[in-house]
What we know:
By secondary structure, the protein is of the alpha/beta class.
Amino acid sequence: MKRRNLLEMIMGGGAAVALSPKETQAQVRVERATRGMPSPKIKDIQVIATEPGGVRLVVVKVITDQDGLYGYGCATFTQRADLVVPAVEKYLKPLLVGRPADRIDDTWQMCYNGSYWRNGPVLNNAISGVDMALWDIKGRQVGLPVYQLAGGKCREAADCYAHASGSEISEVIDSAKKFIAEGFRNVRVQVGVPGYAGYGSTGTQVSAKALHADPVFEPEPYVRRALKLFEACRKEFGEDIGILHDAHERVTPNQAVQFAKDSEKFKLFFLEDPLSPEDLAYFRQIRQQCSTPIAMGELFNSPHEWGPLISERLIDYIRVHVSQAGGFTPSRKMAILGEHFGVKTAWHGPGDVSPVGHMANVTLDLVSYNFGIQEHSPFNEHVQEVFSNCPVVKDGYFYANEAPGWGIEVNEKAAAKYPFGTGEQGQRKKDNGGWGVIRRRDGTVIKQ
Ligand SMILES: [Mg+2]
């Protein structure tokens, strides 16, 4: 647009809009800055599969036809990581090469609807890899971090929680104390159950007699043990520390209702996944019978699965594994839906999220008014060798980096040093990174 045309446009075709000379100059500067930005086209899509931290990570790289302009997205489905790679390479790449890289929602809809049968974890993660990469590209193109593209910060940093665990309650308390000393105000606590395989705790000797050779878990002793842990934590830490716990959907629906009620007096920050996705109707009973805050949703596939729990106000925090839901675009929409119903966010952020995915989490934390809390897991030196400029935690707050896009560069040579299987042993290696199975004493498979 020529300067004269711009001025005519500003003048509204004769209807006087009184702009000062300074304002007019500013408009001209904006017009000049944005004019030099032709729409980038997708030239290639590549997949980086790496395991620097002992967890299988999948990252998608979208390369445009503009020199040096590319972006990264997280597509990590740790337990079935190998399947995401061909979903990207054999289906999304042919669909997208040659198309504009700057139409993010349109691209998401194309990919999502293009398979006809949709909402699967493999396909959603593949779409997320592309979706987040396009946000990265747009940020790099304009020289702004993605949080600026999504409206800017609602807060300076994201309050987060660390994972304290141990085979004994005293070990969990000691572990929590270390995090509190580092500045964390919130800690997730998980303790082993003597004789059984637990969730989130290692080192427990499994000695329960079972009719099989797989790890053994029984819900009743787990619930009793967890309640003792909450009591010990409150005694030790008083009321100023947020105590979180993940039930990991391992109890029956009735036990879950009882567990939530019995936990009420310990005033948890939240109780996570008391019910499995198959038992959602029981959330009404929990709601009716106690005020324990509930977090749910990391196992959902479709962005639409969160809808009823949010709109009926049956949970307090949406747990979303952002890549599992299809990426930044659908997750941002879910956050906004939650805001309308007073439901807060608690994006899934353990080690099976790549640093690119963590940056997407922190970005959502910063731009969403209804942010609740952020799960945090540290990046070890190998992860930081592959992914530079990871977001950092200071005094229990997660900070986004301020570089354009997600601000993260992937050292692809370093990534190649850690192929899938690096650091895995035993059954997990045999299961190709999968989680295997856990059974009750009699052999019944337990949800995990
Ligand atoms: Mg969980």
